[in-house]
Amino acid sequence: MYSILKTQGVLPLVTQINIETAQIVLQSAADAGIKIIEFAARADNAKEVFSQMIAFKKANNLDVKIAVGSILSVDDAETFHLLGADCIVCPHTDLEIGNYCFKNNIYWIPGAATLNEILHANKLGAEIVKLFPADKIGGPGYVKAIRAPFPNLKIMPTGGVTLEESNLKAWFKSGVVCVGIGSNLFSKEMLLDLKYEQSLQAFQNLIEVVAKTRN
User: Fold this and answer.
1) 1-200 belongs to which CATH class?
2) Which site among 77, 151, 200, 213 is 20 to 30 Å from 83 CA-CA?
3) SS3 string of the chain?
């Protein structure tokens, strides 16, 4: 999973979508060459939508992994793992969730804000740590500062990452492994009436701008 995220450089995120939109997102992501996306399980019907996403992915033999985000408890981690999640992403660091993921061989990306929290997550076994909310706690400058004494930190900033070249370039220059991007890729308004061509273009543009700003 680490190599996929490092190579892709970005973890696109969608949330609060219906199954039709979810199918469009999955098909267009796979067609664009995206290898992993995140579905944030924030809505009441998240389990239902996700189970149908997995069914659609299998029925169409799509080569795209699905991480499930906004996981707050070990019960939810277990539920989505059994439904078919390839990765569990949290806004926080929870030992119970981490232990469940390691025991069941599912990739775990916990969230953290401070250097001590990031190091704690690493000690618990996390390889990549989600920095959240990245823009509110210092942005790229913060990442650069904490990586100075700890250059091996593998960080994925989420929150405030945009599609602007200057923004992405600053994040990658700070030394992050990849970035998480959600509402700046698909706004709530876009997701209300998302078309396949529109989604495909969004993913293709994302791949292009990430590749350009990483070099």
Assistant:
1) alpha beta
2) 200
3) CHHHHHHHCEEEEEECCCHHHHHHHHHHHHHHCCCEEEEECCCCCHHHHHHHHHHHHHHCCCCCEEEEECCCCHHHHHHHHHHCCCEEECCCCCHHHHHHHHHCCCEEECEECCHHHHHHHHHHCCCCEEECCCCCCCHHHHHHHHHCCCCCCCEEEECCCCCCHHHHHHHHHCCCCCEEECCCCCCHHHHHCCCHHHHHHHHHHHHHHHHHHHC
Are the beta carbons of 153 and 123 closer than 8 angstroms? no
pTM beyond 0.90: yes
- Domains of the chain, by residue range, sit at 1-200
Q: Tell me: cis bond preceding 133? Omega within 30 of 0 counts.
A: yes
Cα–Cα distance, 196 to 215 (Å, whole number): 29
Q: Quick check: 171 and 179 in contact, CB under 8 A?
A: yes
One-letter amino acid of 154: K
pLDDT digits (tens, 9 = 90+) for 172-213: 999 999 999 999 999 999 999 999 999 999 999 999 999 999
Judge contact between 90 and 126, C-beta under 8 A: no
